[in-house]
Amino acid sequence: MFALALRSLRHRISGFAASFLAMFLGATILMSFAAMLDTAGGTGVDATSKETLTTMGAVVGGWGLLLVVFAVSSTLTLSVRQRSAEMALLRSIGATPRQVTRMIVGESAVLAAAAAVLAVAPAVLGGRLLLDLLGSTGQVDADVAYVFGPIALGMGITITFAAATLAALITARRAARTSAAEALGAAAVADDSRLSKKRIAVGVVFLLLALDLAVVTATVMKGKGSDAMQTAGQTSIWAAIGLAVLAPAIIRKVAAVVAGPLERRGLTGYLTAQNLRRHTGRLASVVMPVVLFTAIGAGTLVMQAVENDAMAASGLLKSNEQKNIETLNFVVTGMIVAFAAIMLINTLVAATAARRREFAQVRLAGATPRQVLKVVALEGAILTAVGVALGTAAALPTILPYSYARTGDVVPGTGAGIYLAIVAVAAVLTVATGYAAARRTIRTPAITAVA
């Protein structure tokens, strides 16, 4: 099965591009930040610089593992779903569930190894830029020498490989459990977006954890200044992951609500409604990065804006620890938001490219290319609305409790501009990327695409 995995990779390079990019970006980010741990262990590093560098390296390692697992799992799920006919054929000729799992894990392991090796060079540069940033803000002594060593390489390669393997096991589990007859049927019809009890339980656990942290922030951390960020900052991430895990079921509910009005909007609305009903699993893969982008971006940046206003109102100067927290918030948020944005583009391009045959069939049935593009644009608008709504719901457990704990007001008096900017970027990325990818896809003659 490992040999089959290698052949599958060789003949499906474009199909694995999304997963490879997720691993490559994840490894680059992980090694860039882990280099701060190597640097902290160098000679002549003062105590303050060492604390800052250690905090930067340690915090991102844990979040990096979680985010890489999430991103790779999302792209692999999309890839496996697009290969349902191939999986059905393997099962029908006698492949066992264990063999299918080994093939998918083998593919992921090869991609992870290649991604980690290629990520070393950009990670060396990224770590140096991060150290320069910390030095320019006075949080690390300018004389601290940059070191990219075994910790960076070890964390980057190990976490990337572990995350990719875990994501592959999660993805392969459902494909391997499906019987040959069920797999053949699934390959011919719409995807099944029904969530397993275990997946529902995972989503609920993340949401309950977010709720718990929100309550702790508003009660235990009230009056403790910027220390409340320790609990508030994590809340939006846990909530976003919980809602993203449950995204297929949420989209199914949304489809049931909007299908009727859409079908009364003519051919474009009818086709959009059918796609929402039949392909909720695929569409959920697009919604996930929108949720992460909106929730983490809005939650952390608005929280920092509340903190900055509170400090300005008090007339106090920020301590070195508070500067560290602010820099960490901006850097980590920028990293996560950029990662989510790239994954959104990556997933949209992969998902749209896989619809070449679907678009061709619709065109052969009489739809014009312009009508196909209208369907894609309308889908993008709906997915943006769903993703932004879920992302906003995930950001509020960070923003509202922190505002109350820090200022006494539940609704913050700042941050509206930040939130609107994040929503605008999410909308542009989702709609524009999907539209551009669809235009490129439909350039192929319909007869050729169907064949």
Automatic annotation (TrEMBL):
Transmembrane helix: is it a keyword of this entry? yes
Main location, first listed in the record = membrane
Q: What's in the keyword line of the UniProt record?
A: Cell membrane, Membrane, Transmembrane, Transmembrane helix
Q: Where are the transmembrane segments?
A: 12-36, 56-80, 100-125, 145-170, 200-221, 237-262, 283-306, 330-354, 375-396, 416-438
Its localization reads: Cell membrane
Q: Residues in domain ABC3 transporter permease C-terminal?
A: 63-177, 331-445
Name the membrane topology term.
Multi-pass membrane protein
Hey, which family's this protein in? Belongs to the ABC-4 integral membrane protein family.
Q: This protein is called what? A: FtsX-like permease family protein
**Species annotation:** Streptodolium elevatio
